Amino acid sequence: MGPNDASSGVSRRSLLAAAALLPAVAGPLRPGTTPAQGVVPSSALPSWNDGPAQTAILDFVRAATDRSSPSFIVPENRIAVFDQDGTLWVEHPMYTQVMYCLERVPAVVAKRSELKSVEPFRTVLSGDREAMAKLSRGDLEKILAATLTGMTVEEFRAEARTWIEKAQHPRWKRPYTELVYQPMLEVLRYLRDSGFKTYIVTGGGQDFVRVYAERVYGVAPEQVVGTAGATKYGYGRDGRPILTKEPKLLLNDDNAGKPEGIYFMIGRRPQAAFGNSTGDREMLEWTGASGGQLKMLVLHDDAAREYAYGPARGLPDSRVGRFTPALDEEAQRRGWTVISMKNDWKRIFAFESGS
Amino acid sequence: MGPNDASSGVSRRSLLAAAALLPAVAGPLRPGTTPAQGVVPSSALPSWNDGPAQTAILDFVRAATDRSSPSFIVPENRIAVFDQDGTLWVEHPMYTQVMYCLERVPAVVAKRSELKSVEPFRTVLSGDREAMAKLSRGDLEKILAATLTGMTVEEFRAEARTWIEKAQHPRWKRPYTELVYQPMLEVLRYLRDSGFKTYIVTGGGQDFVRVYAERVYGVAPEQVVGTAGATKYGYGRDGRPILTKEPKLLLNDDNAGKPEGIYFMIGRRPQAAFGNSTGDREMLEWTGASGGQLKMLVLHDDAAREYAYGPARGLPDSRVGRFTPALDEEAQRRGWTVISMKNDWKRIFAFESGS
Q1: ipTM (interface predicted TM)
Q2: Are strands B197-205 and A241-251 parallel, antiparallel or unpaired?
C-alpha cells in the first residue's frame, strides 16, 4: 500500500494550503537607495551594523562553539533554521512562487486550450494585475493545481529552473535570486563556518525552493524543508521509473507545521531560528523550548531600500508578511531579537555598493 | 491550517501500513557458528570475502571518486540509501519494532486497565507467542496505535531508548543493536569515508530508528527516512510547546513509498542502493534510473550463522523478508548484485571472532 492509494482525486487541502500564498496588493515601487553607512564591519558579518542584532548573533556563535561555555553546543546538534520569504529574500509584492504559477499559466493553457476561456485562467491571461490580486482562494487553487502538479518531478524542475533564471522582479528588474538579503547570506555562511547545518524551513514549495537553494543560499536540497505535495511512483512509456507530482498535500510547512516539519524532516531540535511573520511563531517557540538561544525576527521597516510593513505599517493590511502586533508582543515577552532592516543592515542586497 | 486539521480521529491507513510489519512464525533457534574463513581482508571491507559483491562495491567507489572516470560522481551527489530490516540488521523472527510494540503492551495496560481483558491486548499479555503470531492486521493496528501514538515525541524517544538498551533477541540473547551486520557497517563507513552521505530508507518507523541509528550505524537522525506518522504541535500544562504523536500516516516508506520518500526527504537521486526484499524493489529501480551503478540485494542464505529464507527457502512462506522469485528475476535482468551472506561475508556480527 502506498501513501497515494488512499487519495481520492484532487485534494482541496493541498491547494488551500498553497492558497496561503495569495498575493498582496503591490506597494509603491521605489528605486533602491544608497545603503546606510556603518562602522568598520565585523569580518563575519560585514553587512551588519553594530547593534543588538549583530551582537546577538556573534555572542550566540561564540558561546555555541566554546567548550568552556554553558551554552556550548555539540557539533551534531548545531541546527539552524531559516524561513525564506521575507527572511532570506523579498516577499513583496507577492511570493515568488505565486508569481511563478501565474506566469506558467500561458504555457499550461497552450497545452490545454479548453482552459483559455475559463476563469480564473482568463483573468490571468489578461495580465490585469489588479484583477489577479483579487482572485479568490478557489481560483488560486485551480492555478496552483494546473501549474504545480501533473508533471514528472524532472519536468517540474526544468520548468522552474528555466523560469527562475530569467524572471525579473517588477521593482528592481533583476532576477528574484538576486533579491536575497546579503546580511542573511552572511549569517548562513557564518553559521556553517561554525559547524552549523543550515536549513530552510519555508511555507513555500519544498521542491520549488530546492531548484535554486544550493546555488543561491548554499543550502543543499536535503536541507530544504517546505510545503510538499505527494508524488506517485510509476513507469513512463519507455518503462523508465518516474515520479509524478500529485495534487495531494503531504506537509503544510507553515505555522504549527514548521515544528512538525522539523521533527519529521530533521529529527533534531533547532538551536537557532530566523523568521519574519506569524507563520514562524511556532518554529521560534519550539526553538526556544529546545534551549535554542538565538531566535530572530526580520522587521521590514525600510520602505526606501526594500519595504515597510507589519509593525512599521508601510503597507496597509498586507496579506504577505504577517508581523502582527501579537507577534511583536510575543517577541518582546520571550526575548526574541528583532532585526531592523533599516538600522541593522548596512546593505540589503549584494548588488548595492557595499560600505 | 495545519496538516492535522483534516485528520478525523484514528486513521486506518497509518495502522494498515504498520501492519505490514506483521510478525513471521519464528524459525528454529540455532546458536551461531564459527564464521567462514576468507582470504586476506581488503582494508576497507575486512569482513567481506573476495568475490563479485565485494568487487562491485570497491569498483563503484573507485570510479565514483576518480575524476577521470566516466562514472565519477560530484561530491554533493554522493547519496547512498540502505534499507534496514534484513539489510543492516536481523529481521527474524520478527521486525524489532513489532517486538517493541508487543513488549510495550504491559506498560500501556498498566495505565489503561480497561484494555486488560480486551483483545488483542489479552493475547499479548498472555505471552503466548504462537497466538501472537496469528494476530490479525486489525489486532496489530490496535497494538501499534496504543504503543506508538498519543505520547509526546520526547516520551516516545525515552521509552524506545530504554527498551532498545535492554531488550534482547530471543536467539542470540543479545541486544538487537548488536545484531547489525558487520560487513554492512563497513560499507556504510567506507562510503562515508569516500564522501557519500549514507541514508537509511526503511519501511520501519522513522522516529524509532532515529533513536539508535547514530550510535549503531553512524547515521544521523536527519539521514533516516522511514514510515512516519504525523505529530501535532501544542502546549503542555506548563505552557511549554510539545509535539504529540498522532495516529495519522504521513509517509508509508515501503515499496513505491521508498522513491517517493527519497524525493520528499532528500531531493536528490541516489547513486547506490542496498535492500533485501520486494519492499526495496522500487528504490533499486529508481537508483538505476538515476544512473546509480551500485544496486545490491542481501540474500539470507545462511541458516547456520543467521537465517535462510526467500530464494534460499530456509524458512517456508515467510511474511518477513520478501525476496521473491519475481525479485530474483528482476535482479538478474537488471544486473543487480546479490550478496550471499553465506559466501560473501566472513562474519555476520561484530561479536563473532573475526578472521
Answers
A1: 0.87
A2: unpaired
